[in-house]
Every structure is written in structure tokens, then in C-alpha cells.
Request: fold
Amino acid sequence: MKQLFRTLAVTTAAVTALIAADPAAAATAPRTESVSITRSGGFAGRTEWFAVDSTNRDEPATDALSVAAEPRFRALRPAYLPANPCCDRYRYEVVASYSDGTVKTVVTMDGVPGTPDALVEVIDLVMTSAALAPA
Reply:
């Protein structure tokens, strides 16, 4: 696990250095067009959908789109799941769509140790914005 985090940190640092060394590369990086979250499970076993896109004008939506465009989000693995998914946890499927046509999907659940901050941040921001301006 430590090796994984070390590798991720080195990769993130390398990508950041490349972007800093070549501002044109940063300018051509794809924009986040939308982020949607499907939240399912929990005590009631409900499924809910939250989304933001460039038409949302509130700060949480703008921040969610920005974080989803960052290298730290783009470098996330496809899943951060617990060994035992049991017992009234929410499951989140986060789907980010980019201006170059690519799509990033990441799945996680509540309370998974080591869930990256960028993933938690995008989930919180999208759900906050969606509460303010339902998708």
C-alpha cells in the first residue's frame, strides 16, 4: 500500500512538473464538461442521482468541475472499495465527462480508508451544488 501511494505521489509530481514546464500543455488540457454521481445503498437502499455541468453557476459546481479536471483526480484508480462492503453504506459512482470526449469513472463507498481527497472533494461539491440547484 505504501508503494502504491509513493508511486501515485511520484506520478502526480511528474505530471505537475510537466505542466509547469509546458504551459501550452496545461492550456490544451481538456475541460470538465460535467460530473454526475449515482449514490445508492444506505439504510433505505435508495438510488439518487446528482449532477453538475457548465450551466451551473454556483461556487460548489464550479469547484467540482475544476477539481475533476486536475491531474490528481484524473490519476485516480477506477475503484476505492472496502474489503467488506457490508452494512448500510452508500456507494458512489462518479462519472466525469471531458471536452476531449473522454470519460473518467470512479467508484467508492462511505468509510473506505485511504479514499483520495480529490474524490471525496468532488463528491461533496457535486452533492452540495445539486442540493442548491437540482440537476
Notes: The helical segments are 2-21, 23-27, 59-69, 71-74, 117-132. The chain has a mean pLDDT of 83. The beta strands are 32-41, 46-53, 79-80, 90-98, 103-109. The chain has five helices and five strands.
